[in-house]
Specification:
Blueprint lengths: L2 H18 L15 E3 L15 E8 L5 E11 L4 E7 L3 E8 L4 E5 L6 E8 L10 E10 L2 E22 L2 E13 L8 E13 L4 E13 L8 E2 L3 E8 L1
Antiparallel strand pairs: 1-9, 2-3, 2-14, 3-4, 4-5, 5-6, 6-7, 7-8, 8-9, 9-10, 10-11, 11-12, 12-13, 12-14
Length: 241
Amino acid sequence: MATSELQVNLGRRALLLTAASLPVACLSSLPFPQGVSEPQPFDIHMRPPQVGQQWVYNIKNVFNSLSIDIITETVVSVGEQVRISRLSQKFGALPDEIQKPWGYVLQDPHWNPPQKFQKTIPLWPEELRVGWSGFYRTRYEVLGYPDNSYYWGLNIDAQAWESVQVPAGNFLTLKYHSSAPQFQSNDFSRLANWRDEDVWLSPKIGRWVIRRSSGRYVLSGSTIATALWEDYLESELISWK
């Protein structure tokens, strides 16, 4: 891992640990987002990417509801690949997201460490309708370390159309659930790993308005019942263009 990326990751984890150590009486967990059910829309399409499109997210720690960062994501190039730059208010420039083509991720900086996939996989349901599901297998490399690759499998399930209210406004969204069961971590001390996400995707803006992500893992000598948590974060849209 490059020095700058290491500093970002250490800083992020230190911030979360500090937040977790605050008095419990003053904090409460972040409630699960509640939307209003909507019927399946007709002739719905994702907004195509254009240079200059931008989304700004407030990042919260789900365990204690504290805001820990503001991240601005901006489309900086469109072509065979779509590149989205990411800027943290606290840590500066973060690794880019790369899609190839639009809607299929090649380089995903969302998880720690950031992943570069050998075969692209969808970022959202390939069909924007309730009941659609898909499972995808690929392998990923850790950015900066191309000599090793690791198994990654992803389930995506489209669950409901919902109207949700966030600071950026009210949006019609497709709520879907993603899960990566039993993926292979680059940390070989982890014997079992799984990650889950609930995402509220707005076709109007070409991106999600809420993304709630968690992960757990098991070390040698422990059980699933005592699995350790990765970061448990929620991204909420505060502005877009």
